[in-house]
Amino acid sequence: MSPEYVDYVVEQMQESRDVTTRKMFGGLGIYVRGTFCAIVGSSDRFYLRVGPSNVDDFKERGMKKFPGGKGKGMPYYEVPEDVLEDSSILKDWVTKARLAAIEAKK
Questions:
Q1: Which CATH class is domain 3-87?
Q2: Could you please report the per-residue DSSP string of 31-89?
Q3: What's the CA gap between 45 and 5, in Å, rounded?
Q4: What is the pLDDT of residues 2-57, one digit of tens each?
Q5: In the chain, what are the domain boundaries?
Q6: Contacting residues for 57 by C-beta, under 8 A, at least 6 apart
Q7: What is the reported pTM?
Q8: Nearest residue to 30 (alpha-carbon basis) of 54, 3, 48
């Protein structure tokens, strides 16, 4: 995981406000307003939390699931490059990911 890639992802997420990070999974966990909803993997790949309301956005784009979780995968999917490059679109995807994480806790 390169520091430059992490800086780029966090910078792109700034429209979501109150973005914090913590090393985990051999990568980086990203929190938005205290909710864990994103991962930067060790291979410089960026993933967002999915749930029933947003998983199809990722599947329709052919995105891959985060490979963790003892081979079963986790409820995180890789973010399309064009979404990451557009911070205003990314904000919407991050909002949905944060809500998916909150819903999963209920």
A1: alpha beta
A2: EETTEEEEEE-TTS-EEEE--TTTHHHHHTTTPPBP-TTTTT--SEEEPPHHHHH-HHH
A3: 9
A4: 999 999 999 999 998 899 999 986 889 999 999 999 999 888 999 999 999 999 99
A5: 3-87
A6: 93, 96
A7: 0.92
A8: 48
Which secondary-structure segment (H or E) carries 1?
A: none
Contact, 47 vs 100, CB < 8 A? no
C-beta atoms surrounding 104 within 10 Å = 13
Judging by DSSP bridges, how do beta strands 35-40 and 46-49 pair with one another?
A: antiparallel
| Other residues' Cβ atoms within 10 Å of the Cβ of residue 18 | 10
Cα separation of 40 and 53, whole Å?
22
